[in-house]
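wait is this the right file?? whatever heres the structure
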């Protein structure tokens, strides 16, 4: 992720987190576009990179972060299921 601007990674993380919480709804909207200055289409590549990292996190050789956020006090957030595909039309402007 080091090759990407931090603002792009941050916006993409919000997109993916919202998608994981509710895959039936569009993650991006006009408010998020306004404040991040990114259109959903511009996030596509970075969101997919993050999604791949998240999906493969269970096979990492560095499990500390995953174990930490698998605890009750963090609401088991690391155990949340990450869908392997993202509805393509969610990257199109609404
Ligand atoms: C866009 O999404 C954000 C975060 O979920 C929310 O706070 C905001 O109200 C939404 N804006 C619109 C126009 O729905």
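ok assuming it is, sequence goes like this
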């Amino acid at each position: 992720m080091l090759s990407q601007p931090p603002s792009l990674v941050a916006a993409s993380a919000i997109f993916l987190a919202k998608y994981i919480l509710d895959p039936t709804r569009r993650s991006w909207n006009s408010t998020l576009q306004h404040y991040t200055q990114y259109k959903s289409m511009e996030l596509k590549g970075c969101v997919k990179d993050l999604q791949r990292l998240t999906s493969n996190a269970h096979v990492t050789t560095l499990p500390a972060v995953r174990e930490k956020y698998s605890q009750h006090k963090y609401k088991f957030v690391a155990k949340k299921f990450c869908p392997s595909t993202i509805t393509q039309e969610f990257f199109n402007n609404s």
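Helices lie at 6-21, 30-36, 40-55, 64-68. so i think its the right one actually
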